[in-house]
Amino acid sequence: MSILIGILITFLVVILVLYLINMLPLDGRAKQIAQAIVVIIGILSLLKYLAVF
């Protein structure tokens, strides 16, 4: 059960950070890079919860 809670919290944090990045007054390329970094970190975190790493 704790694995599901960890995955849910990670997913919600990634969504929140992506939303906050969209609110920043950055140009399109910088937003795209920041979003890609957040998604990669989120995927790595989810893989950690699934015991891949």
H-E string: HH
Which class of secondary structure composition applies to the elements? mainly alpha
User: What is the CA–CA distance across the termini?
Assistant: 19 Å
Strand count, sense and closure of the main sheet? none
What's the total count of β strands? 0
- Inertia-based shape: elongated
Tally of separate helices: 2
Roughly what percent helix? over 70%
Which regions contain 5 or more consecutive residues with pLDDT less than 50?
Answer: none
Mean of pLDDT = 90
Number of domains: 1
Gyration radius, to the nearest Å?
13 Å
Oligomeric description of these chains: single chain
Strand content: under 5%
Tell me what the structure shows.
With 53 residues, the protein is mostly helical. It has one domain (2-49). It is built from two helices and no strands. α1 (2-23) runs antiparallel to α2. The longest helix has 22 residues, at 2-23. The mean pLDDT is 90.
